[in-house]
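Predict fold of IS66 family transposase; 421 aa.
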Amino acid sequence: MANFYRGTHYLPFTYNRKKPKGKKENDLSVFEVETVKHKLTGDDLLCDDCGHKFKVVSTEVSRTLKFIPAQFITVEDVVYVYSCTNCSKMKRTKKDPSLLKGSIATPTLVAGIMNSKYVNGVPLYRQSQEFKRYGLNLEDKTMANWMIRCSEDYLYLIYERMKQALLKGHYTHCDETRCQVLDEPEQKASTKNWMWVYMTDALSGGPQMVIFQYERTRGGYHPKTFLEGYTGYLTTDGYSAYHGLPDNIIVTGCMAHARRRFDECLTILKKDLKNGEWKNSIAYEALCRIGKLYDIEASIRESSPEERYQVRQEQAKPVAEAYFAWLRTMDTEELDHKSKIGDAILYSINQEKYLLRYLENGHLAIDNNDCERSIKTFGIGRRNWLFCKSIAGAQASAISKRSTIECLFYFRDPCDNNSKY
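Predicted 3D structure, encoded as tokens:
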């Protein structure tokens, strides 16, 4: 079951998914094919009734999928040293330098570990346990050091270039999530630290990029410092720290946050009210009005920024203004500010100027969902690995997470060292 907007109604819509024809063939077409031919041989080629030979009249082909577990291969580099037979001059062949001097780490091994941790959310200690089942004793502490060294020696250079490119743009998103770091000085181990994320989305007109930044606190001075030199729009949630940024940064709001609060109210009402009485609620009416805005956004998703701006001015602006005019007709002084519906109404009213700003520019998104999805993957992994041991580890996580998400943005496999990124 899924929820869809139908005209002015926000209703559940049930449908049966049909399996598309040829799906199995398409799913398997990207893999190498190992053909096993089942033929008659010897006496089996002779007919049991008349003794003559059988001939092939057709073939029947079926496909299954075989899984080959990961394997390790020891790479032994043999460097040959030569001497001139006349003057005894010495010369040696060249080999690619080691990824980490004195280490067995290779780009493919480190990429595989990063992919497991930052894409699949598998902690290093679990990876160490799996490696032991393959016969490799590789401690999680060793892998953690590899993550830190590779992020500092290689990925940080890309990280800085990406940051410079982001600051030269004019359309950015921002969000933050918890990140516990045990070795932060002068704080308890249970203290919350924060991972901030800055990104550009598909509407920005430039390359999509995501940058994670570890910070000790959730203070508003962190985005101010990070975005120093940036001029343009910043799409965020309603966190007040963003509203203290310099005038050259124009903050735009997230309509999804406004909608989410009314959706929570409606979920409760559906449990308490019967026979569709919840359709007469403020929450339902608000969702219908916000739903119209999202219907308009869906219709212009593939349009140019100029076309999006024009449609928003003609269609979305009257709907959005009517939504806020409707909210202002309510007696906010009588609202229970601690109630779900009171919180939902006041959030929209207090965030009005930020929620309307997406109408100003066709490059802006109506919400901050893309940024939230990027940071959600970090949150999923955090539930598994729980914390970072050191500040260097947290910073390495920020840099490595950026790299893996960037690969996924452009449909690259983070483990594919043949991809031209």
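The chain has a mean pLDDT of 86.
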